[in-house]
Specification:
Helix content: 10-25%
Number of helices: 4
Radius of gyration: 24 Å
Distance between the termini: 23 Å
Structural class: mainly beta
Shape: globular
CATH topology of the largest domain: Immunoglobulin-like
C-alpha cells in the first residue's frame, strides 16, 4: 500500500489509496498506464476503511459481470458494483463505447495482475468532471526565441514568444498525433506524425517576425527525426495467432514485428533495442538485438518466459536500419506491445 506521506513525481498505474485534502477523508482510485485516474471510489472516513473497500473492489474487478456500462447524454461511463449491484466505484467519462470497453478491460487486467496495488505513488485529489482519458505526451518541447543579455537597468526586456508542442501515441494506428499551442494567445493547432512543415507554418503564422528573419530561423531549425511506427504483437506460439495474454510458465514468448513503411525493402536488417518493463514501470531487461525483415516486412522476436511472472507487461522495440546502426539515431522504427501473464 502506498505511503500517504511520501509523494512521488512519477505516478504509476494500478490501484492506490489517496487522501482527499479538502475533507481529510480517504478514497481509492485506479490509474491507467500513464498514471491518470480512471476509476474512483467514494470517500471513507478512515484509511483502514478505504483499504478494506479497495481489497473488496480488486476482488470484484477481476470479473466482467461486476462492470455496468452507463450512458449520460452523449458520454459513457461505467460502475464497479458488488453482489447486490451497489456501486463500489465509478469511472471517468468517455466519448464513445470503444474507449469505455477498453478501459473496463484494462481495469480487469490490472485487478488480475500480481501487482494491482501501486507503491510509492503520489497522493492526488479526487478528479471531477473529467471527460476523457488523456494520453500522456511522449514528447514535450517549449520553443522560445533567445533574449539579449541585460545591459543596464534602463534596458527594456524583450518579449518572449513561447510555443508548446505535445506528441501523443495512437496505439491503434501505431502512429503519433501532435498539438502545438502559442502560449501567449492560447491559439492551438493539431497535426499527424512529426510534421515539421505544419509546426513551422504555425509558428510563422503566430510569430510577429519579418519574413526574411523567419526564413533564416527556418534554415537553422534541424529536421525532426523520422520515426516509422510498426506493430508489435504477442503470438500464441512460434507460428501462432496474435493474443493479448499468455499463461504463466511458458519457456518462450514469441512476438511478431510488422513494419508498415511501404518504401522499406524486404530482407532489411534492423539493429534494435528491446526494453521489457512491468506495468508499474520496473525495467526487467534492456538489451540490443538484430532483427531481419522477411519478404512480407515482418520480423520475429523470442523472449525467455522466465522474465515474466503473473502481471501486466510492456515490450518496446526501437530499431535503426542497418546491422551497425545506432538504435537511438534518426531514421528509427518504434513499436510496443502491452500484454498480460496469468496463472
Amino acid at each position: 500500500m502506498q505511503d500517504l506521506n511520501n509523494s512521488s513525481t512519477h505516478p504509476i498505474p494500478g490501484f492506490e489509496i489517496v487522501r482527499n485534502e479538502e475533507n481529510g477523508f480517504y478514497y481509492f482510485q485506479c490509474k491507467d498506464i500513464n498514471g491518470k485516474p480512471i476509476l474512483l471510489s467514494k470517500d471513507s472516513q478512515t484509511q483502514g476503511n478505504a483499504e478494506n473497500r479497495l481489497q473488496n473492489a480488486i476482488r470484484l474487478a477481476k470479473q466482467a459481470k461486476n462492470y455496468v456500462g452507463k450512458k449520460e447524454g452523449e458520454q459513457y461511463y461505467f460502475l464497479l458494483v458488488g453482489g447486490n449491484r451497489k456501486e463500489i466505484a465509478r469511472s471517468i467519462h468517455f466519448k464513445n463505447e470503444k474507449d469505455l470497453q477498453r478501459t473496463m478491460d484494462y481495469v480487469k487486467q490490472v485487478a488480475n495482475s500480481a501487482k494491482a496495488i501501486t507503491t510509492n505513488a503520489a497522493p492526488e485529489p479526487p478528479v471531477e468532471n473529467v471527460e476523457t482519458i488523456e494520453q500522456k505526451p511522449v514528447a514535450e518541447t517549449s520553443i522560445t526565441t533567445p533574449q539579449s543579455p541585460k545591459k543596464d537597468a534602463k534596458t527594456s526586456i524583450k518579449p518572449k514568444y513561447s510555443f508548446r508542442i505535445d506528441l501523443y501515441p495512437r496505439e491503434e494506428e501505431n502512429s503519433l498525433s501532435g498539438r502545438i499551442e502559442y502560449l501567449l494567445s492560447e491559439e492551438a493547432a493539431t497535426f499527424q506524425g512529426v510534421d515539421g512543415q505544419a509546426i513551422v507554418q504555425f509558428i510563422k503564422k503566430n510569430l510577429p517576425m519579418p519574413s526574411e528573419k523567419m526564413e533564416k530561423a527556418e534554415r537553422k531549425v534541424p529536421a525532426p527525426p523520422t520515426v516509422d511506427q510498426a506493430e508489435l504483437l504477442l503470438l500464441s506460439g512460434p507460428s501462432g495467432r496474435p493474443v493479448r495474454s499468455r499463461e504463466r510458465g511458458q519457456s518462450q514468448l514469441y512476438f511478431c514485428l510488422r513494419y508498415k513503411n511501404a518504401t522499406i525493402r524486404p530482407d532489411t536488417q534492423l539493429n534494435a533495442r528491446i526494453l521489457i518493463s512491468s506495468v508499474d514501470g520496473k525495467v526487467l531487461s534492456n538489451f540490443e538485438n538484430k532483427l531481419k525483415l522477411s519478404a512480407d516486412k515482418t520480423a520475429f522476436l523470442t523472449l525467455p518466459g522466465t522474465y515474466f511472472s503473473s502481471g501486466v507487461y510492456r515490450v518496446q522495440v526501437k530499431g535503426a536500419i542497418g546491422p551497425n546502426a545506432d538504435p537511438n539515431a534518426r531514421g528509427t522504427v518504434e513499436a510496443n506491445c502491452l500484454f498480460q501473464i496469468f496463472d
